[in-house]
Design brief:
alpha/beta; ADP-dependent NAD(P)H-hydrate dehydratase activity; nucleotide-binding; UDP-N-acetylmuramoyl-L-alanine:D-glutamate ligase; Rossmann fold; potassium; 18 strands; eleven-stranded mixed sheet; metal-binding; about 40% helix
């Protein structure tokens, strides 16, 4: 896990690291520049012209060092500076002094924008210390650079984007942001997706022990964190070992939701899947998903009753497509009161709970709730548009009701009652299509049924769901549908080297 720190904490962390290691800040800057260049050279051609825009602070020093290192590897580089070197930091000027003379270095003010052409723009104008809206030459630069129809990459943070709060005004719009050691909080806000682009985190050698002295309950998940949370099954494992899962949902016109959940649970590895649907769904389910057992309620069109003998299941997931009828709400109440095992609560089940305080009181530590932003807003009764407040609201809700909360979206936020919050690294815009939330419900329920803790099921479920979305998007692009995501779930295990 990468601990997420504030801009002030990061500055203090770097100072402590440099002091203990007995190295200069210039050496750490060189390490960061090398990490950036290593990533860049793996992804971009030497035939592409690069324009690096540098301020006179340490972020600009990163940019100057990157220019030198890329030029040394045969990349065509030009540098454009904003500000006077006499106002620059010591590390900026140290790098400027060793910039090879073959690299063109021009003031930003001298650019002829009508004739300006390049393949790649690298933003190294302002770093993580920004605490006010852009103005003057930096605002002018960002507006001009954002209008260029070319690849744009930000070093550490896009210029204009504060590290810890919502942007105010303009900011550089990057296709990639290459940050160092740990993500900055605001780079994880869905509202900042158009500025951050794809987030790349590069290690610059600051060991985890240096983070221990800094208080933070927020973490960015890494692949290795998922690997160590997975259970290992042996060759003699039988279907009972992989869990008995019940999925409750469906209504007229929305039976597809529970079908997607069931297929996702199967592809995630569940041993036995049962569904509980309205009567009309029996022939549809049995003819469509041969591997799933089907039970029905007393009503034909809506869920108007609860299943019997719920203790035969290792976990229950409830909500996809089930509607919010009064009888359905009572069936939900019956299940919440009678079942004491692990549960996933999603979709219409959340919408019912949002309206009834008596049902909120039935939420337990055995439950994982999976709202998207609008569903969460209904549950807390407050505006959750502002990300800083939304993160705090998620923490408050999880601790009040003792549940694990998955707030779905870009870098989905998993919050535990212990006060720990995890940001997920996987996913893409191609998950923004109907039914992918139902897929997540099935994935998480499958892990619960396989015996994972509620925390591990949430973390592994969100990670694999996001990765499956990425893989499906690589193939289908904008044509990606929820069923494509399901079919990519097995490939996520191969990607992680899991059996």
């Amino acid at each position: 896990m990468l601990k997420i720190l504030s801009a002030r904490q990061i500055k203090s962390l770097e100072e402590s690291y440099l002091e203990e290691k007995g190295i200069l800040s210039l050496e750490l800057m060189e390490t960061a520049a090398e990490a950036f260049c290593q990533w860049y050279m793996q992804n971009f051609s030497r035939r592409q012209d690069i324009a690096i825009f540098c301020g006179t602070g340490n972020n600009g020093g990163d940019g100057i060092a990157i220019a030198r290192l890329l030029s040394r590897q045969g990349y065509p580089v030009c540098v454009y500076t904003l500000g006077d070197a006499k106002d620059g930091t010591a590390d900026y000027n140290s790098n400027l002094n060793i910039l090879p003379t073959n690299i063109v270095n021009k003031p930003f003010s001298n650019i002829d924008w009508e004739r300006f052409r390049c393949h790649v723009i690298i933003d190294a104008m302002l770093g993580i210390g920004l605490n006010k809206p852009l103005e003057g030459k930096y605002l002018d630069a960002v507006k001009k650079l954002n209008s260029q129809k070319t690849m744009r990459i930000a070093v550490d943070m896009p210029t204009g984007l504060p590290s810890d709060k919502l942007v105010d005004g303009e900011a550089f719009q990057a296709h990639y942001t290459v940050t160092f050691q740990t993500p900055k909080l605001s780079a994880l806000f869905p509202e900042h997706a158009a500025y951050v682009g794809d987030l790349v985190v590069k290690d610059i050698g600051i060991d985890g022990k240096y983070f221990n002295g800094y208080e933070s309950s927020r973490y960015f998940v890494e692949e290795k964190d998922i690997l160590e949370r997975h259970k290992i099954f042996h060759k003699a494992s039988h279907k009972g070992d992989f869990g008995k899962v019940l999925l409750v949902g469906g209504s007229k016109g929305k039976l597809g939701a529970i079908m997607l959940s069931a297929k996702a649970a199967l592809r995630t590895g569940s041993g036995l899947i049962s569904t509980f649907v309205p009567g009309f769904g029996l022939p549809i389910m049995q003819s469509s998903i041969h591997e799933v057992m089907v039970e029905t309620c007393t009503g034909n069109d809506i869920l108007d009753s609860a299943p019997e003998n719920l203790d035969r299941f290792d976990t229950i997931a409830i909500g996809p497509g089930m509607g919010t009828d009064e009888k359905t709400a009572e069936a939900l109440k019956n299940i919440l009161e009678s079942y004491k095992g692990k549960m996933v609560i999603d979709a219409d089940a959340l919408n019912i709970i949002a309206k009834r305080k008596d049902l909120k009181e039935l939420i337990t530590s055995q439950m994982i709730l999976t709202p998207h932003l609008k569903e969460f807003e209904r549950m807390v009764g407050d505006d959750v548009k502002y990300p800083e407040g939304r993160i705090e609201k998620a923490l408050e809700f999880s601790q009040t009701y003792g549940c694990v909360l998955i707030l779905k979206g870009l870098h989905s936020l998993i919050t535990t009652p212990a006060g720990i919050q995890y940001f997920n690294p996987t996913g893409s815009q191609f998950l923004a299509t109907g039914g992918t939330g139902d897929v997540l419900t099935g994935v998480v329920a499958s892990y619960l049924g396989q015996g994972y803790s509620v925390e591990n099921a949430a973390l592994c479920g969100v990670y694999h769901h996001g990765l499956a979305g990425q893989l499906a998007g690589e193939d289908q692009r904008r044509g990606t549908i929820a069923s494509d995501v399901i079919e990519k779930i097995p490939e996520t295990y191969k990607n992680l080297g899991l059996s």
